[in-house]
Design goal:
Layout: E1 2-5, E2 10-11, H1 13-18, E3 25-28, H2 55-58, E4 64-69, E5 75-79, E6 84-87, E7 95-97, E8 104-110, E9 116-123, E10 130-137, E11 145-146, E12 155-160, E13 166-173, E14 178-183, E15 191-192, H3 208-218, E16 224-229, E17 235-239, E18 244-247, E19 255-258, E20 266-270, H4 278-287, E21 292-296, H5 307-315, E22 320-323, H6 327-333, H7 338-356, E23 360-364, H8 369-382, E24 386-392, E25 398-400, E26 405-406, E27 411-412, H9 413-424, E28 434-441, H10 473-494, H11 499-511, H12 515-532, H13 536-549, H14 554-568, E29 611-612, H15 638-643, H16 648-651, H17 654-666, H18 680-683, H19 692-698, E30 703-708, H20 722-725, E31 736-741, E32 745-753, E33 778-784, E34 793-798, E35 803-807, E36 817-823, E37 827-835, E38 849-857, E39 874-879
Parallel strand pairs: 20-21, 20-23, 21-22, 23-24, 30-31, 30-39
Antiparallel strand pairs: 1-3, 1-16, 2-3, 4-5, 5-6, 6-7, 8-9, 9-10, 10-11, 12-13, 13-14, 14-15, 16-17, 17-18, 18-19, 24-28, 25-28, 26-27, 29-36, 31-32, 32-37, 33-34, 33-38, 34-35, 36-37, 38-39
Length: about 900
């Protein structure tokens, strides 16, 4: 049958001729017969939803994203929560069939009247490793079984090749070096196809204009995601909230065959995935059974897909996640002036209000003032009954406390926040209360209860059809017990223990925690260990216990990498050794405490304002012996490793390859010899130079030359020194970084647009190192000298020249460096000089390669390192003569 997709690039011309206001894109598939053989794989990709989600109950309300018919009578539809619907009467009635999975199913392909394939998948918490699910049916879609999908990334689209093979496209596979794979045995096994450009955008990123046209034609306030022809004049369409529609007159008139009264009750508009009030969505959806939808103003700089927030939304019982404006919409106004951009935003706001027609609009306080004003105006014009603003931590009229118990789900609000952030941004996984203030309200009664719809008339279609599963008494008791668990963990971490005893006690905490809550508790402990700045040995012990406890999760592999890097990376070897320990020109730096006055800068040109960012410390003899090693009884033996199933999705991840290559060059293990050049596994990345990782490693556009300075620059913010004239400038966006070096210092100059870099009015006098910069805009510069992208030297500078330095988040690194800042009319300039003795034992040789990164960290944001680094953030720097 012919296939119409709501996201395709072609339009059905005959349908356009009949319905001038309808624009339905098309894609075509041809049936073909192949053999099939069942197989199964691990379930963590198939069932990523926690038990409190209640995916089995939510399937009747799940958003549907694909539909396909093999005959005019027999068709399938699929979507969130592993929902598969089947019809045998041309789409007039539908019945759920058991899929055996709870992940999102993205696409359907009929092979014959009896054989069909459905693909989808999910993402791992913390690492966001992409996992595929392939389902196969040999009986016309009545029963389903898994294909061999354990080594595949999440799959998004299916089609047939000219020679009859099944072609699946999805996320990039680091092991196969492609995002396109093929099967020639009805989806049972898969092989790598032709490498293509890194493009993992989901098929449901249709333009706002097309979404509007669907709503205009059908008259139903629901986003339709896919459509398929049944016969010459008949079509079937599926969309959010499980709505299914069909037409028998070429699209002139549509009738809803399932979910006719369903519509969005609560629409949330957020700045980006990290600022979404995830616990509020869970409270409204899981607890109060309201239909919720989410719009993201910024889908994420590094995310080519919104698949991760969509997975989180489904986990919390929500429905749709869309970008406020698609990439195409952004491009249309990217070069226009500010007024045209404002007009485009207003048009998009009006369109979304007409599409969803929500009862309540919830707006992120972190959006620009203009955005909030436009959204409010659009909502009042569209007849929205209530508009509220939300924020984390500030005072409001209604607050969802982080310790609030959601009895319906048997979870704390903080549990939902942490589970969401484990997928969105694990480095920012902290629990906070949510404050809400009303800015527009048509409610006539007194607001009561814990829902945003209090005192409003809620239509039946605003509520989920399925009732909330009752949380067991045991589940409620466990949730209440977690209120005290955080205090017990704090007490536990405050005790002085040897690593071996610490691991034993930590293992006891895990064993006393329910399996479903264990990873959340473990990550919370790791976050507290980092925040409390405990010893490196305890930090590594925590990582090692996580690695051993969660062997079935990719977070175990990450914990092993992280622990090994802390043990032997160049950066962590610098802890405890500062330039104050090194005698220069026959003299030692005089020592003092953190309040001691800094010596005169060697770059001082009064009244330049140059200040030493660090303080001198007493002379120390650094201990270069390893601080910690894994106990013999906890180490994984070679035979155990061989017996364990190899996770190729993780083992071939570029971060793993970079870490191993760095260890090979350092000679960390007795069996490894220090070597130059690049490992064969890393060299494979050069074969496909289209991914962000390969561009970081090999593309000249990601390389910055660091020239030797013939004379030190004057730190005055003018950038007129000879060393800056030869430096290559671009190293980040919107910041510009220039680098130079000599045998004594590494020099950096950063330029930031003035309008993007806020003032810092704090008094710099007093503490002269490691200021608390969380409440001000600052620039963060990172240097990774052994190129493992796991550990790095980090320098932060505010507009007033206040500073903070650390190895990762550990402030025990206390280098000597000097900084000067200058605010000009259009930009802010920062110049700094970092003592070479604090970054390398010996002078940096010509040809040395590091990674470097420069970024703006807005006030109120955490300058954390992603669990899996973003290669787009980094540049390869090469030290030249």
């Amino acid at each position: 049958m012919q296939r119409i997709r709501a996201t395709g690039m072609l339009w059905v011309q005959t349908l356009l001729a009949l319905v001038s206001t309808t624009m339905l894109p098309s894609t075509w598939t041809l049936p073909s017969a192949t053999a099939a053989d069942p197989d199964t794989t691990a379930n963590h990709a198939a069932n990523p939803m926690p038990s409190y989600t209640g995916s089995a109950n939510l399937r009747t309300d799940a958003s549907l994203v694909a539909v396909d018919f093999v005959t005019p009578q027999l068709g399938l539809a699929c979507g969130d929560h592993g929902a598969i619907w089947r019809t045998m009467d041309s789409g007039n009635t539908w019945s759920l069939v058991e899929s055996g999975v709870s992940c999102r199913l993205e696409d359907i392909l009929w092979l014959t009247a009896s054989r069909a394939v459905i693909v989808g998948g999910s993402y791992d918490p913390m690492t966001r490793i992409s996992r595929a699910v392939v389902l196969r049916s040999d009986d016309g879609g009545e029963t389903w079984h898994r294909g061999e999908d354990g080594e595949l990334p999440k799959l998004l689209r299916l089609k047939r090749s000219e020679d009859g093979a099944i072609i699946a496209e999805g996320d990039w596979s680091h092991s196969l070096l492609t995002n396109q794979i093929e099967s020639r045995n009805a989806g049972r096994t898969w092989d790598g196809g032709i490498a293509r450009e890194h493009d993992n955008s989901p098929k449901s990123t249709e333009s706002l204009a097309r979404i509007q046209q669907w709503v205009r034609v059908t008259g139903v306030p629901v986003v339709m995601r896919d459509a398929c022809p049944l016969a010459d004049e008949s079509y079937c369409a599926v969309g959010d909230h499980g709505v299914i529609q069909r037409t028998d007159d070429g699209g002139k008139n549509w009738r809803v065959v399932q979910g006719g009264d369903r519509r969005t009750c609560i629409l949330m508009v957020s700045k980006d995935p990290t600022t979404v009030a995830w616990p509020m969505i869970g409270s409204e959806s899981l607890q109060n059974r309201h239909r919720t939808a989410l719009l993201l103003h910024d889908g994420g700089v590094h995310d080519h897909t919104i698949g991760v927030p969509r997975q989180v939304m489904a986990m919390l019982g929500g429905s749709a996640v869309d970008r406020f404006a698609t990439v195409a919409d952004h491009d249309a106004t990217s070069k226009d002036n500010a007024e045209k951009k404002r007009e485009a935003f207003a048009a998009a706001a009006n369109a979304w209000m007409k599409i969803h027609r929500p009862l309540v609009l919830v707006i992120d306080e972190q959006l620009d003032t203009f955005c909030k004003e436009v959204l409010l105006q659009s909502a009042s014009t569209a007849g929205v009954s209530r508009v509220v603003h939300y924020s984390y931590g500030s005072t409001g009229t209604v607050t969802l406390h982080r310790d609030a118990l959601l009895a319906g789900a048997g979870m704390l609000a903080s549990d939902l926040q942490l589970d969401a952030m484990h997928l969105i941004a694990p480095e920012q996984a902290i629990s906070r209360s949510i404050s809400v203030k009303s800015v527009y309200d048509l409610g006539t009664g007194k607001r009561r209860g814990d829902t945003l719809t209090s005192a409003l008339s809620v239509h039946t279609g605003h509520r989920l059809q399925s009732p909330a599963p009752a949380a067991s008494r045991r589940r409620l008791q466990m949730a209440q017990a977690r209120l005290a668990q955080s205090r017990r963990v704090d007490e536990f971490l405050s005790q002085s223990m040897k690593p071996e005893r610490f691991r034993t006690a930590l293992r006891g905490i895990f064993e006393q925690t329910a399996n479903e809550d264990r990873l959340r508790v473990a990550w919370s402990v790791l976050g507290k260990v980092q925040a409390k700045r405990v010893s490196r040995r305890i930090h590594q012990a925590t990582l090692d216990e996580i690695a051993e406890t969660f062997v079935d999760h990719s977070v175990s592999g990450w914990a092993q990498l992280r622990s090994g890097a802390m043990q032997s990376s160049r950066e962590w070897s610098l802890l405890g050794l500062s330039s104050a320990d090194i005698r220069q020109s026959g003299e030692a730096f005089a020592g003092g405490g953190t309040s001691a006055a800094a010596p005169v800068s060697p770059f001082q040109i009064p009244p330049s304002g140059v200040a030493q960012a660090s303080n001198v410390v007493p002379l120390l003899v650094p201990d270069r012996t390893p601080e910690y090693s894994i106990n013999e009884d906890s180490a994984t033996t070679e035979s155990e490793t061989e017996a364990a199933e190899v996770d190729l999705n993780w083992e071939f991840h570029p971060l793993v390859l970079l870490s191993r290559d760095a260890a090979r060059r350092r000679g960390d293990e007795a069996t490894l010899q220090p070597a130059e050049g690049m490992s064969s596994d890393l060299a494979r990345l050069a074969e496909v130079p289209v991914t962000p990782w390969s561009r970081l490693m090999f593309a000249r556009s990601h390389e910055v030359s660091v020239r030797r300075a013939q004379e030190p620059p004057h730190l005055d913010g003018l950038l007129d020194d000879p060393c800056w004239q030869t430096a290559l400038r671009r190293a980040g966006n919107p910041t510009e970084l220039r680098l130079a070096y000599d045998d004594s210092y590494l020099y950096a100059a950063i330029e930031i647009p003035a309008e993007q870099f806020g003032e810092d009015t704090a008094d710099r006098s007093g503490t002269i190192r490691d200021h608390d910069l969380r409440d001000v805009d600052r620039v963060r510069i990172r240097f990774d000298s052994d190129r493992d992208l796991i550990t790095s030297m980090q320098l932060q500078v505010s507009a007033a020249g206040r500073t903070h330095d650390a190895i990762d988040a550990n402030p025990a690194w206390q280098p000597t460096w000097y900084v000067a800042t200058k605010r000009l009319e259009d930009r802010v300039v920062i110049e700094l000089a970092l003592s070479r003795h604090d970054v390398a034992d010996l002078p940096i040789p010509v040809g040395e390669i590091w990674f470097a990164s420069v970024e703006l960290v807005p006030a109120g944001s955490v300058a954390g390192d992603p669990v899996i680094p973003h290669p787009e953030d980094w540049k390869r720097i090469v030290f030249q003569p």
